Amino acid sequence: MLRGTIGEAAYTGWISLHVAIVRGDGAGRAINQGGTKIFKVNAAHYLRRTCNLPANLGIHAIGRERYNIESAKAVADLILMCIPAKTRGAPLSEGYALALLDFMEEKARKLGLPGGFDASTPFTALKSSYSVFSRFDTNDLHQLCYAALTLVSFGMAVSALMQLTRCKRCFRWAIPGYELCPEHSSSKESGYSLEARRLNYLRGVRVSESPFRSPPRMRKVAGINVRRLPRVIARLLWGTPLPNEERTATLIRNTVRSNPDVWPLLGYDCADLQGGALYDRLNERLDRYEFNPSAWVPKIKFLDKWLRHEALMLPGRRGDGVRKERRIRDATNLAREGFIQADIAMSLGIRPSTISNWIRRGQAPELQRLLAEGRASPGDRKESFVSRIKRVFAQQLSPSLPATRRKEPR
Questions:
Q1: How far is residue 130's CA from residue 133's CA, in Å, rounded to a whole number?
Q2: Sign (positive or negative) of CA dihedral 290, 292, 293, 298
Q3: CA-to-CA separations, 406 to 84, 200, 215, 216, in angstroms, rounded
Q4: Least C-beta-crowded within 10 Å: which of 75, 103, 127, 401?
Q5: 221-263 pLDDT tens trace
Q6: What is the C-alpha R_g of the chain?
Q7: What confidence score (pLDDT) does residue 52 get?
Q8: pTM score > 0.85 for this model?
Q9: Which residues, given as ranges, of the chain have pLDDT below 50?
Q10: Euclidean distance between CA atoms 341 and 364, whole angstroms
Q11: Where are the domains of the chain?
């Protein structure tokens, strides 16, 4: 839901960036001065993160109070002056949000931003907004105005983060502005096809609103608040690790290993992923709007309960999924050893067309790559046991077969 004016969004964007640098990224060091807690800010670090914007606007570090909140408010007032008065006081609307998205996409394309401007989630919008902002030369007046509009997008993403709510059907975060998560919503924002959205919605209703068995309820997990916001933004923009994040990642991997029922959904290699790849996999397959690393452990444990409840409410669905995942994993391992598609199908007791269907539906990208590499280099193929037995029997039986002669017509 869009709230406030365009000027308020720009103000929110700049103040959020300032606090994230000072309190989340380590540019500020807390000291006590006369019983009052203040932050002594590293000016070089601060200007590097803000792309020298305060200095270009004439706000310089003075004394021990380097770039405190008062100077940040002064910078915010100057930034608002770069936005026309009519635009500055206009309320945020869906039409303006779409126009701003087009502007950001155009600037990202012109500035050569890798991947363009991604607004699929508040987190990607926040990162893309800062990436565009950091490409502008704020010493130039026109680019300074563009940077001010970029801070509007940054502020809107921060507001969307603060407005995240839980899904009414399950334990995931809901799509911003909606009541359901992407796995159960019929909205286009979920990213699924029309038929998939319909099936997901009906499945969610059947699982969560059954009159015979209530779904499991997850205890409340810590969300985002004003105190956590600076650390969250710093982690998203600059990769600043949260306290004990490595220990948390180890705990996540151990939780995945101890709950084998979640392997088909999260992937059999999820427990072996490191660093950002682990969180990317969890965001992709479990909850795309989760931002708190410590929230993954209770979510993975609860996912095991949820899948068992889903198996009771939707009988016959879960077993096929597990069997298919195991077959795809076995087929991938055989292809990695050099077997061709026909021999893989014979070894698993399935038809070659089944493997083709997996590849066509995008369910086995690794298997597709291995089979394509095998076709490109046929000399590296490995002869299967079944093919070798057939060849040996053919060689042994071929000399003993009687020669057939064609009868001459009389």
A1: 5
A2: negative
A3: 98, 66, 76, 77
A4: 401
A5: 656 667 778 888 888 888 888 778 889 999 999 999 998 888 8
A6: 29
A7: 82
A8: no
A9: 62-65, 318-320, 400-407
A10: 13
A11: 6-162, 176-215, 241-313, 318-393
